Amino acid sequence: MSSMSSEVLGVESRIAFIGLGHMGGPMAANLVAAGYPVTGFDVVPAALDAAAAAGVEVAESAAAAARGADVIITMLPAGKHVFAAFEGDGPGGGLLAAAKPGALFLECSTISVEDARAAHQMVVASGHRGLDAPVSGGVVGAEAGTLTFMVGGSEEDFASGAAIFEVMGKRIVHCGGPGAGQAAKVCNNMILGVSMIAVSEAFVLGEKLGLTHQALYDVAANASGQCWSLTTNCPVPGPVPTSPANREYQPGFAGALMAKDLGLAVEALNATGVDAVMGRTAEEIYREFALGGGAGTDFSGIINTIRHASHRTD
Ligand code: NAD
């Protein structure tokens, strides 16, 4: 097992891919296209059919997919699904017991730092190795193989899994020990949520003050207000033609996912006692946005909520 831990896993490695949804489906397809033998499982039959069409060998259960695999990738909705897949009963569970000793778990779902650390403990206690490796880049990045992976775990395990991440991603960052990948993701997305609200408030204020969108953009994009929420995902149509605002706020990055990620940020803020007024406020704003019809629209659609609230006369 000690020789296994330093082994760099390449194209001969057998991969089990659990969770073949919006992200997992195309990620698994890219591994197949790169020549890896991939066996997949999802609890939803339609996801399995789509994966089979992309060349994934379909298993009858998560445990059956994991048996004999060198690498087990999970891409599931939330922490409770990860725990169920690791230890639960039924067709979607039992990964830890089924995997061979020393197998490398790449846990790519976005879950809380606390859950990631607990999941890592479970993996190690079962005689396996594990990295937390959440991604950014969305479905477009998953399809194109250009995701960013934020990875937590040991140097050896990171080196072992690097070639596999490189098939699915463009930027692979080793952030530190177990949970560090999720920590980096939650901090980044807290910046993103806050900055999108700030940019949107500034555009609505500019409207009230008689500024054109283009004028504010031309100044702020080249001044100290510059940020991704302004220059890539600009919440008004016009200045950045590829931003979701130009296609009626079709995502992009959906409001539901921003609300989810800010919920994880608040969990981390509570666990650490950090005084973060902006992060907590952003979480409230996006929770309401998602509940009020914004779940399926791009998160930059928050500008319409701000604009609407600003027309009140009371
Ligand atoms: P999704 O709901 O489309 O896919 C998750 C899949 O997991 C579903 O097909 C579901 O049936 C399956 N599943 C659940 N429990 C299972 C089990 N026990 N065994 C097998 N399959 C199981 O979600 P998604 O959009 O692919 O996102 C996956 C993760 O990636 C989430 O944590 C999300 O926050 C994160 N993420 C998503 C995006 C995005 O743009 N969609 C971007 C970055 C990160």
Question: Mind explaining what this structure looks like?
Answer:
The chain is of the alpha/beta class and 314 residues long. It has 2 domains: 174 residues, NAD(P)-binding Rossmann-like Domain (Rossmann fold), CATH 3.40.50.720; 126 residues, N-(1-d-carboxylethyl)-l-norvaline Dehydrogenase, domain 2. It is built from 15 helices and 9 strands. Helix 2 packs parallel to helix 8, helix 10 runs parallel beside helix 15 and helix 13 runs antiparallel to helix 14. Nicotinamide-adenine-dinucleotide binds next to helix 5, strand 7, helix 8 and helix 13.
Properties at a glance:
single chain; 2 domains; 15 helices; elongated; six-stranded parallel beta sheet; 52% helix; binds nicotinamide-adenine-dinucleotide; Rossmann fold; 314 residues; N-(1-d-carboxylethyl)-l-norvaline Dehydrogenase, domain 2; three-stranded mixed beta sheet; alpha/beta
